[in-house]
Amino acid sequence: MKVLIISDTHRRDDRFLALIERIKPIDMLIHCGDTEGSEELYMAGVDCPVEIVAGNNDFFTDLPREREFNVGNYRVWLTHGHNYYVSMGNSILKEEARARGVDIVMYGHTHKPVVDVDKDITAINPGSLSFPRQEGRKPSYIIMDLDRDGQVHYHLNFL
Fold first, then answer.
1. Distance CA 35, CA 10 (A)
2. Quick one: average pLDDT of 35-58?
3. Whole-number pLDDT of residue 159
């Protein structure tokens, strides 16, 4: 199973459209918020299930603020992260994820990619396709693969 995880596109959708053409097919698309009204484009742009949450810049949207769902045998909690102080680190977010009993928490907001794997919880932030803030400022995304045994593997990629 091949899952594309993106975030913080802020209505700058050209990179997403080029990326999806390059890496398709995918089995699932996950957007961690701040589409700024482009959610219909993301849902129409792929032929697979799509999970999207509202970010702090997603005004006037019906998107949920948070979602929980399964990817394979893993329970995933999807949130933009701004309500969990992720700009100061992901410890509060991971604490909440543990309390919820999920395996993986996916978030955005910081525009900086993170793959933080602990023994009991994994925190994933794909960074931003549009406005990266990490050193080097390269647009980023994550491919999450589930192998034949159902084990998860994360691949941080840069455009």
1. 5
2. 96
3. 93
> Position of tokens 């701004």?
82
> Phi, psi (5° rounding) for residue 26?
-125, 160
Global pTM value:
0.97
Q: What is the pLDDT of residues 89-133, one digit of tens each?
A: 999 999 999 999 999 999 999 999 999 999 999 999 999 999 999
HEC secondary structure over the chain: CEEEEECCCCCCCHHHHHHHHHHCCCCEEEECCCCCCCHHHHHHCCCCCEEECCCCCCCCCCCCCEEEEEECCEEEEEECCHHHCHHHCCHHHHHHHHHHCCCEEECCCCCCEEEEECCCCEEEEECCCCCCCCCCCCCEEEEEEECCCCCEEEEEEEC
